[in-house]
Every structure is written in structure tokens, then in C-alpha cells.
Amino acid sequence: MSYNLLKGKKGIIFGALDERSIAWKTALRCHEEGADLVLTNAPVALRMGEINKLAEQVNAPVIGADVTNMDDIKKLFEESMKHFGGKIDFILHSIGMSVNVRKGKSYTEINYEWNQKTLDISATSLHRVLRTAWDMDALSEWASVVALTYIAAQRVFPDYNEMADAKSLLESITRSFGYYYGTKNKVRINTVSQSPTRTTAGSGVKGFDGFITYAEKMSPLGNATGEDCANYCVTLFSDLTKYVTMQNLFHDGGFSFTGVTPAVIEMMKEE
């Protein structure tokens, strides 16, 4: 169901990889709510070809950008504003990558060069995007930026590895830049801490299947789906949340504030 919450708004969606990704689902919902979109991802991801299918569905151009390259990001904003004929109203940052996780390195033995790449792509990229938009005056007044994060930024989930550090940095950048951008022209910046979700990236974390079952039993409302996360992002892009900024917003069915549940206790007994 559409409520026209984003009618007339223009936004950039980072990170739509395939139909399983939250960014993909968010792009669909933004389109349904009346938004005009630009889709972007890293050149290597674009070569996979999936994003072109989404582009057809939401009638959006695809502009490749390496988020570790300031020139690429500047070009993305230039071409996006040219396409929109004006400034940008919202951005979704759905970007995360860990070489150490891919290579099976534990947290206590991470390769530091790989770690730097993880932080650069997964967190510092948000600063680069915001800095570029700031320098170019690319965001409209009351624009909204949302970055996807995870509760491992606050609690230890051993197999989440160095990505926990990256998400901590991501949330810190959100708060700090949120202050400056809020005072400059009312731009609001938030992170959404989503339930474990069966995306291509999420499923690559060791022990994911067992953990998603645990989280389901720990959450009073159950795990939030990718579709519901997309709905939540739409509300944050809309004018209904104009005074929400610098927040880490848990979208996890109550998992983040639940100590234990009978279902989890029973699961432990079964073992």
C-alpha cells in the first residue's frame, strides 16, 4: 500500500546488490511512495548485472561509484543532481564489506591492511558521502540520511568480527556529522540497527543460521524482515520524522532490550 509519503522527493540508494538486499527492497518501497531515485554501487557489484533489473522496476539511472574514491562520489552527486534537476532529499547508505571475515580471520588475528579496507568501505565511506554533499551543498533543507548498522556495535557477537568495529565507527560518524549538518541546514542523519536478515552479505557471517534462530526466539515481535526495514526507512525519509536525528534506531522486534525469553531457555534445555 502506498501513502505517497515521498511524493516529489529525490533520493540516492547505495548498495542494492540483489533482490535479497535491504537497499533493493528500500528502493522498491521509495518508488512506490512516489520518490525519484538514483541507484549506485561499486563497479565490481555493477558488473554482476542484478541492479539493472531493479533500475527498470523503479525507473532509475545506475551510476557507479567507488565509495573510497572522492572523485567518484563527487561525480555521483553531480550526475544525480543533473538527473533530478536539483538537490537531493534522502540517501540510504547500505554498504559493508570485510575481507577478514571473507578470509576466515578471527578477530584476534585480523590482517590490519584488510581491517583498514573494512573500515574505509563500511564506515568512513559515510563520512566521504556526507563531506562531498556538504562541500557541494547537494542536500536540500530537511533532507534525511539513513545508514544501516547492527547491534554488534554495542554488544559482542564474536563471529561478526571486525565489522563490529566498523559499525561502531559508522554510528559515531552519524552522530558527529548529524550535529554539523543539522545546524547547517536541518539535515537529519540516523542509523537503523536491523534484525539479522538473510541478505547475501549477512548470510556470509559464520554461524548465521543458528543466530537468526536465536534472535527470533529472543525478540518479542520476532525478527524484523527486510521488507519491514524498508518501510521503516521510508518513514525516516519522509516529513513525518523531521526532528529525528543523530540516533541509532533499533528495528529488531525488541531484541535489543530483551534479557532472556522462555523460548531461549527451552532451546538451551533441549541441548
User: What topology, given as strand order, has the largest sheet?
Assistant: 2-1-3-4-5-6
Instruction: Give average pLDDT, whole number.
Output: 94
Beta-strand content bin:
5-15%
CATH topology: Rossmann fold
How would the global form be characterised? globular
- Superfamily (CATH H level) name: NAD(P)-binding Rossmann-like Domain
Q: Find the count of extended strands (DSSP E, 2+ residues).
A: 6
**CA-CA gap between termini:** 43 Å
Structural class: alpha/beta
**Helical residue percent?**
40-55%
Order of helices and strands: EHEHHHEHHEHEHHEH
CATH class: Alpha Beta
Instruction: State the major sheet.
Output: 6 strands, parallel
Write the layout of secondary structure elements.
Blueprint: E1 10-14, H1 22-32, E2 36-40, H2 43-46, H3 50-58, H4 70-84, E3 88-93, H5 99-102, H6 112-136, E4 139-149, H7 163-185, E5 188-194, H8 208-218, H9 226-237, E6 248-251, H10 262-270
Parallel strand pairs: 1-2, 1-3, 3-4, 4-5, 5-6
Provide keyphrases for this structure.
271 residues; alpha/beta; Rossmann fold; six-stranded parallel β-sheet; 45% helix; 14% strand; globular
